[in-house]
Structure formats: C-alpha cells, structure tokens
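so the lab meeting is tmrw and i was supposed to have these ready like two days ago... anyway. pasting both below. for each one the top line is the aa sequence and the line under it is the structure tokens. i havent really looked at them closely yet so no promises
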Amino acid sequence: MDRPAVVLLSGGLDSTTVLAIARSQGFTPYALSFQYGQRHAVELDAAIRVVKAFDVPRHEIANIDLRPFGGSALTADIDVPKHASVDELAADIPITYVPARNTIFLAFALGYAEVVGAVDIFIGVNALDYSGYPDCRPEFIAAFENVGRLATRAGVEGNGLTIHAPLMHMTKAQIVSTGLGLGVDYGLTSSCYDPDADGRPCGHCDSCLLRLNGFAEAGAIDPLDYRDQ
C-alpha cells in the first residue's frame, strides 16, 4: 500500500537524512523545496541531485520571495557571520534566522499533502544542533501539527496530520551516522550559508561548522570540498 509523505527538502545534510529515514520507514516521499530568495540558492541544485539519487516520484520547488521582509543574512544584504570554530557559536538567535520560515514552509507542505493524499509531513528540524532558531523546537512542531489538524479538510474528516521530526533530539554526529547507515551520499548535499560562485562551502558559517563538527564526532569524512579547509 502506498504511503505518501511530504518531505521538506532543502538539499542540506539534515533534510536529506530525513528523506532517507522516510524511505526506510516505508513512505513514498513527495519532496518540497523552496526558492525563497536565499543567497545560498545553490542548495536547490543539491535538492535536485538528491531526489534523482533517491528516485523520488515528485519534487516541487515553490517560488516565494522573502527578500522584501529582510531581517536575515540569508535574504538581505547582511554579512553571514563567520567563526573559527564551533565553540564560537553564540547562544542567541543568530542573524541567519529567517523570520517565520518554517511556519511558511509547513503551511505550503499542508497544501501539498492534501493534494497528494498524505497525512504525514517530514521536516529536518533539530533541538540540539539547531543554531538557536525558535522554529526548530518541539513545542513549535507540536503546535503546528495541531494547526494542520484544524485547518485542513483531511483533519476535519478525522485523518489526523502527523509531522515527523526524526532528528529533533539527535546530535549532528548522530544524524551523520544515521544517514551513512542508510546509504546517504552526503557529497550530493549543500549546507553552506555563503558558498562561492562554484558552490563550494565556506567552512566558517554556523551551518558549515556544525556540519564539520558532526562529521568529526561521527568519525567520518565530509566529502564536500571546503574552500578554506
């Protein structure tokens, strides 16, 4: 029996791992990515590579422009913070936080799920190595799951929506190990917030540092070619 599930796929390490997990649990993934005006739009090329590798039956890239709102180094003319090591990452919400991004993405996923007949949505949020983003917390996921049950025809008809966040309580090292165990080729992915014109990751933004630290703690080698490593 087909078990469709919408998988939010950025093309990065976390969302690719989530795609592999969804497949391993017997779901047929319907991938959803976003062109939202992000400076690291190269991640969409990675998402396309990933869906081809996983033979995903349908992949939609929704075009929404969050640049008019600004407020983030990913969508405005604001420098992406760089650090020498993961120990320098601040505990405060960083400037790379895109206001309400996951709320917006999940709202789109609700519509996509209704169209493809899915009552399951997978998202790669994480409450441990999450860079301080408020929309990556379990409280947010639980609240939005309730919204989905109230706001959709499927929910009203008793087909309760489930939002799966399988990485929520994993360290980055555990995420890497899980993905490698499922055969994920992380050379297909892109995580950097400030890649160069050729798509090579910087190695010093929050996302790069968390990724590199995860591979190191997992005892694995990151296959990406970092320009400053």
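ok protien two:
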Amino acid sequence: MKMKLKTVIADDEPLARERLRYLLAGDGEIEISAECRNGREVIDTLRERSIDVLFLDIEMPGRGGFEVIEQIGLGHMPVVVFVTAHNQFALRAFEVHALDYLTKPVEMERLQATLVRVRERIASHAALLTQEQLRSVLQNLDDRARNDYAKRLLVPDGNRDFFVNVGDIDWIEAADYYSCLHLGTKNLMLRETIKQLASSLDPQKFVRIHRSTIVNVDRVGEILREGRSDGWVILTNGQRLKMSRAGWQSLLAASRTC
C-alpha cells in the first residue's frame, strides 16, 4: 500500500482553496493535511508537521509565498508548487527551486501533469536518501569494526607484563600454541595461536602472508616472487619472510585499501 502524500493548500481566497481541494480529491494518493489562509499559517504548519507537497499562493496577506520560503529556508521546504493569477512571478518561482507554477483557475489536465512531476521528484529524493542512509550505515559499521581491532596487547613475561602497541610490531611468527611478536630487536611470546591473534588485528594493517607468518604492512619494503607460487617479503629492516601465493594475494588486497 502506497503512502499518501501529505499536502498543504495555501491561498487567501476561499474559492481558490475549494477548487484545488476538489481537483485533488480525485487523487487517492493525496492527503490534504491542512489549508492555510496566509503566510503565517503556512510557516506554523511547516514547523509543526512533516509535509510532502505545498501548493503555495504567491500573494497572501502578511507574508507571501516567497517570504514563506525565506523564513523556513530552502533546505527545509517540501516540494513547492506555486499557484497564482499572475505570470510575472514565474521566473522568480523557479529561482527558489519551485517544482512547478500553476496559474488560476487551475485546470485538471495541467494539475495532473504537475502531480506526475511531484511523484517523480519525491521518488528520486527518497532513492537518494536511501542510498545516503545505506552508505552511512555501512561506513559506521566499517568504522566500528576498525575500532574493535586491538590497539595494544598485554604480553606476560615471567613476573612482568608488557603492554605492546600493535603498530610497533614488525611481524608475528607462529610457535605452536604461542605467537612470537617481533619488535625491532626485541621478541616477546604471547600465549595465543597465530590464528587467534590474526582475528584481533586489523586485516588491512596485518596480513597473514604464510600459515606461520603475519606481517605489518607498514614494514614491507620489497617483495620478491619465485615463479607462480612462493616468494619473499623483505621488511624495511632487511628481514626476509617466506610468502605463499595466498599470502601474496592477501598482501595485494590490503595494499589497495591502504
């Protein structure tokens, strides 16, 4: 079931409001939410409720149609269709991004053409909004996932515990149920398998280049390939690490996203 378009008719002439109400009544997708007699009532209505379409008379007591838009702000206006007896305002109407411009007395055929454009505008806006919302959700999920990766590791060593910033790790080596963290000239043993440790590290920063080796991408200085299978990673400190074909592909994927 389609949602009805919440519509406001704004005109200081009762007969003009009545005619437009009558013409819109035949459209099952239009719901007239309010009728306004002047600019002040229009402003109050737009501030109080969410409106999809506004049929707005340009010349009204107090504040006219253009003053209403100035007061509310273009970015907060619904789809606007100006309705007036005077053609001289047409250019200015489109300058304030009105969707259409109807002259009185409004004819049914002309109104129906306008309603087609109204639906197209609202549908395109909704599609754009959905895309933006989806992009925002995915970005938030990605940011949250990144923030969940370990920033520091607690490494027990005898009667002392070391806090290690993961960014200081050059590479990690599997050692049965342990993982050996290589930090410059220092090596620390952490009681976690390399598989367990890999799941807690950012895969764009730490890549498993071999079943027994994880490397910090920022420390990779050179790659040597041997045929179509294995190769070597040369770290910036000169350390050579064995690399499998799958590791090579993972390293390439991480490099593209960095």
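from a quick look at the 2nd one: The first helix runs from residue 14 to 25. The chain has two domains: 5-143, 152-257. will dig more after coffe
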